[in-house]
Write a structure and sequence with these properties.
alpha/beta; single chain; globular
């Protein structure tokens, strides 16, 4: 009986150890895979995102996110590669257009940026230089070689009220949007951080941490409102950062071509066939629904007094330790 009892005890111990190992493996696997997050409320507002390693992402990111991020991490970067990082609707295409003109030396519209977030790295590898990429992810998700100092990175930020309005109107124009609902419902999700690419605040804090800790000199920080106030000065700074030299007349031409009013008309007149196909996949609009008013302070036409008071309270609370100051009008 003692022999049997000892044997039984050993079997149970072995079974328990295997069960623990299997549980740990399952937990580890769960942490490395993304999950779909769907939020809805009683008023019919709905938003869908992907979650990976605690961060929210847009559903367009392929597969389980992990595999795609690993390919981006090991991507071969060229010295003249340019990366534009931003939270959605913060001036991504605007900065891309300026940077493309400075990189090519031609003041012509060349289309939309290639997004690291959605495109296969194998396709991006084959693009001719100079390559310009965009991403709504943070610095830690860029290729490892970029984080080691290769290529150039523009980080552009914009006040969160105008971002909210621009993102809401943008999502309404998409054929297959991850959000549906009212402005009130959208604003609740936005303030709670239940948004494509997560919280505007947390994204800003991630960039602040990068600025404070990253020792490389290949990152330039831009502010949307500053560019609206003095575009020529920012174009000059961007050219200097990229290490390109042009006479002042060309920089002034780039500035003129990249004022919002001129740029929108240019894009309509000079739109490329490949962009037209992309537009039809995204939206029923005749032009890319990424350009709207481009104004500072348009949020006043959408926020109610009560919504603005609630948002201001949240903003003061969240930003109490931030060094960033934004203009809202």
């Amino acid at each position: 009986m003692r022999i049997f009892s000892s044997f039984k005890a050993e079997v149970l111990k072995t079974f328990y150890r295997k069960a623990v190992v299997i549980t740990l493996l399952e937990q580890s696997k769960a942490l490395t895979m993304c999950e779909w997050i769907e939020e809805s409320d009683s008023e019919g507002n709905y938003i869908r995102t992907k979650k990976y390693e605690g961060k929210l992402y847009v559903s367009l990111i392929p597969g389980n996110i992990k595999d795609h991020l690993e390919k981006i991490d090991s991507m071969e970067v060229r010295e003249d590669d340019t990366f534009i990082l931003s939270y959605p609707k913060s001036g991504t295409h605007w900065v891309f257009t300026i940077a493309s003109m400075l990189r090519t030396g031609k003041s012509t519209y060349i289309g939309s940026p290639q997004f690291l977030d959605y495109n296969d790295v194998e396709v991006l590898d084959k693009l001719p230089s100079p390559r310009l990429f965009a991403s709504h992810m943070t610095f830690d998700r860029l290729p490892r070689q970029v984080r080691e100092g290769k290529g150039k990175v523009f980080v552009v930020s914009r006040n969160p009220k105008d971002v909210a309005v621009s993102l809401y109107t943008f999502l309404l124009k998409l054929n297959q949007a991850d959000f549906s609902g009212s402005w009130e419902g959208f604003l609740r999700f936005y303030m709670e951080g239940k948004m494509l690419y997560g919280s505007w605040f947390q994204t800003l804090f991630d960039w602040e941490e990068t600025e404070a800790t990253y020792k490389g000199d290949n990152v330039m920080y831009l502010v949307y409102e500053d560019m609206k106030q003095d575009l020529l000065s920012n174009v000059n700074k961007m050219a200097s950062f990229l290490g390109v030299t042009y006479d002042q007349s060309f920089l002034e031409e780039v500035t003129d071509r990249c004022t919002f009013k001129t740029m929108v008309k240019t894009i309509i007149d000079e739109i490329k066939p490949q962009d037209q196909e992309f537009i039809h996949r995204m939206s029923d609009e005749k032009k890319l629904p990424i350009y709207r008013k481009g104004e500072v302070g348009d949020w006043k036409n959408h926020f109610t007094v009560a919504q603005n008071e609630v948002f201001d309270k949240l903003y003061q609370e969240k930003m109490r330790n931030s060094k960033c100051k934004f203009r809202f009008e």
